[in-house]
Amino acid sequence: MAALKDKVKTALQENRILVLGTQVVLGLQFRAVFEKGFTQLPQATQHLKLVSLGLMLIAFALLITPSSFHRIVEQGEDTHRLHHLLSRILTPVLTLLAVAIGLDLFTAAEKVAGRVAGLGLGVGGTLVGLGLFYGLTGVQRHRRAPEIERRKAMSRQEEQAEGKEISVKDKIGHVLIESRMVLPGAQALLGFQIAIILQESFEALPASSKLVHLVSLSCVALSIFLLMTPAAYHRVVEQGEETEHFHKVASRLLLAATVPLALGLTGDCFVVVRKVLDSIPAALVAAGLNLLLCLGLWFGFSLVQRARRGRPVGSRPAHA
Questions:
Q1: DSSP state, 79?
Q2: H or E stretch including 163?
Q3: Which of 84, 106, 188, 224 is most exposed, with the fewest beta carbons within 10 Å of its own?
Q4: pLDDT tens for each residue of 232-257
Q5: Which residue has better confidence, 24 or 64?
Q6: Residue 101 CB contacts under 8 Å (≥ 6 apart), including other chains
């Protein structure tokens, strides 16, 4: 039976894989709107690309949520509640990714071989993804049910010792993993944002959209600076020593980095939706929903959970 800290570490590593893949695809989807071939797609297909982008944004917001939960609610401690959250996040994320990739397959196949082929490849790709994510895993879970129940029983016994804090070394290791989850994708996104400026279609954007994109680019750059600062701080200030002070600083910098990252994603969401739909109100609504989703999941959800955790055991909210 793996120790709780090892299970959390593995879950964070698995979450990191999904975050990196999602962020790179997300950047490519932002850039696709500015390619010459995008304007040649049927209008319905362009709208489907927006749907795919929206699904990827939701998936990304969900994947970052455990990091903020770990920092705000658990204060960097490894708990069964964090491990369960990391596991539960997978179900909606994998569904969103399968559907989004299916939509992108439809777009590619429609352009090459026609709408019927596009529907076949898009639906087929989505079903293959869902089959692997849920069919294969569901069958194996059923076959291994006795062993799973045995592990659950052992896990419940472990929960009695959950109050014991993990070492500073392990906490620092986990906050650095969470920083590495966000940093490479943010760097890739910044690269796509810079490349977009060099696209011919970018010149056709209204001046206000260009300005919003520039602000978004600057926000993502700020997020990258914040994510890279713990490495410098650890070397210069702490001389490589693992201290509780460094863990707190790294946690705060990680949380701070998510704010400009959310703003950067929101700004480019506005630019893309406005370009495709040619509607400022629709772009404002989409951007507002994206910002609400990111900040709501990363901070609202975690702060509510921390407030609930702070109540005395057995206490109930007072009725008006």
A1: -
A2: none
A3: 84
A4: 888 888 877 788 888 888 899 999 99
A5: 64
A6: 25, 125, 126, 129
Q: What are the domain boundaries of the chain? A: 4-309
Q: Are 193 and 220 in contact (CB under 8 A)?
A: yes
Distance between CA 15 and CA 90 in Å, rounded?
A: 8
Total Cβ atoms within 10 A of residue 88: 12
Sort residue 76 into left (φ over 0), alpha (ψ -120 to 50) or beta.
Answer: left
Burial of 278 (0-12, 13-18, 19+ CB in 10 A): exposed
Report the alpha-carbon distance of residue 83 to residue 60 in Å, rounded: 18
Dihedral sign, Cα of residue 7, residue 10, residue 16, residue 19: negative
DSSP one-letter code for 136: I
DSSP codes joined into one string, 88-100: HHHHHHHHHHHHH
Structure tokens given for 292: 């609400």
∠ Cα 93 96 100 (to 5°): 140
Angle of CA points 270, 20, 9, to nearest 5°: 130
